[in-house]
């Protein structure tokens, strides 16, 4: 059953993930999975490029927000992501493949219907 997003922030997050996927595909990533969810946490996007596995956290913010998207990442969130990545790698028997965790920040200008996407690589 697909997720149903009802709140404004959930809809903004879903739009941000869609834009992040489009950005990644444009930059030669192959999307493997989205919203991998386990008890430990969730990975927004799992992709590959050049024989490497990429786990991508997406942070979406309004263009006029007083904080930057990357400021929403904290040590607790990083630890949860790392444990979820380890679980994914074990489940898929990918323990010998190179991987990294990236952050994609999506700044949304809802009034002008524009967005700016940037990637911060290897955040762990």
Write the layout of secondary structure elements.
Blueprint: H1 8-26, E1 30-38, E2 41-49, E3 52-62, H2 75-91, E4 99-109, E5 114-120
Parallel strand pairs: 3-4
Antiparallel strand pairs: 1-2, 2-3, 4-5
Q: How many domains comprise the coordinates?
A: 1
User: What is the 3D form?
Assistant: globular
Q: In what order do the strands lie side by side in the largest sheet?
A: 1-2-3-4-5
Sheet with the most strands? 5 strands, mixed
- The portion of residues forming beta strands comes to 35-45%
**N to C succession of SSEs:** HEEEHEE
Radius of gyration over all CA atoms, rounded: 14 Å
Which fold name corresponds to the CATH topology?
A: Trna Endonuclease, Chain: A, domain 1
- The number of distinct β-strands equals 5
Number of helices: 2
- Mean pLDDT across all amino acids: 88
Low-confidence stretches: none
What is the architecture at the second tier of CATH? 3-Layer(aba) Sandwich
Query: Which class in CATH terms?
Result: Alpha Beta
Helix amount:
25-40%
C-alpha termini separation:
32 Å
Structural class: alpha+beta
Brief summary of the model shown:
It is built from two helices and five strands; from the N terminus they run H-E-E-E-H-E-E. It has 124 residues and is of the alpha+beta class.
């Amino acid at each position: 059953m697909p997720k149903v997003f009802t709140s404004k922030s959930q809809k903004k997050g879903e739009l941000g993930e869609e834009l992040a996927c489009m950005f990644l595909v444009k930059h030669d990533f192959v999307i493997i999975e989205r919203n991998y969810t386990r008890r430990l946490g969730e990975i927004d996007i799992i992709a590959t490029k050049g024989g490497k596995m990429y786990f991508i956290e997406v942070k979406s913010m309004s263009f006029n927000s007083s904080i930057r998207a990357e400021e929403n990442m904290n040590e607790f969130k990083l630890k949860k992501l790392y444990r979820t990545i380890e679980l994914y790698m074990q489940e898929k028997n990918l323990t010998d493949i190179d991987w990294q965790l990236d952050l994609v920040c999506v700044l949304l200008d809802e009034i002008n219907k524009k967005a700016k996407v940037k990637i911060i690589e290897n955040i762990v």
